[in-house]
Specification:
138 residues; 80% helix; mainly alpha
Length: 138
């Protein structure tokens, strides 16, 4: 019978086991890593597309509001150009409606004004009332 020390061990050494495990892991992951990179790239692209869509949505909303703002300015221009005695009674009503539309657009566009709207409206209303009373007396 041979001496136990001279019989080679059939158990793999720890270093051989670790090397084998690393090779198996490397082989398994080598096919997944490129695909994982593609997935991450696609997710980043989706987030970028979403951000751009949100930005475009805001631009379209501002564009609509700005078109309304342009339309109200045209109405104001027509209103000021068409001031006649026959319309003297409707002028105040139209003035108030135009000012409300104007202020709504200014608020939607987040424009800031130096003058306080209510005080300016009161001043404009007083002037308009004075002009209308003079027109009616004539």
């Amino acid at each position: 019978m041979k001496d136990l020390e001279t019989i080679p061990s059939t158990k793999p050494k720890l270093s051989e086991f670790m090397e084998g495990a690393a090779n198996v892991a490397n082989n398994a992951l080598s096919s997944i890593v490129p695909k994982l990179g593609i997935v991450i790239s696609l997710i980043n692209d989706i987030f970028t597309i979403h951000e751009n869509a949100q930005f475009n949505k805001k631009i379209l909303q501002y564009q609509e509001t700005f078109a309304r703002f342009q339309a109200i300015l045209k109405k104001i221009k027509m209103f000021t150009a068409f001031e006649t005695f026959s319309r003297a009674m409707n002028i105040k009503k139209e003035f108030i409606e135009l000012m409300k539309e104007y202020e709504a657009c200014m608020n939607d566009l987040s424009f800031t004004m130096i003058i306080v709207f209510n005080e300016q409206r009161r001043i404009d209303n007083d002037i308009l009332t004075d002009i209308l009373s003079k027109m009616i007396k004539v």
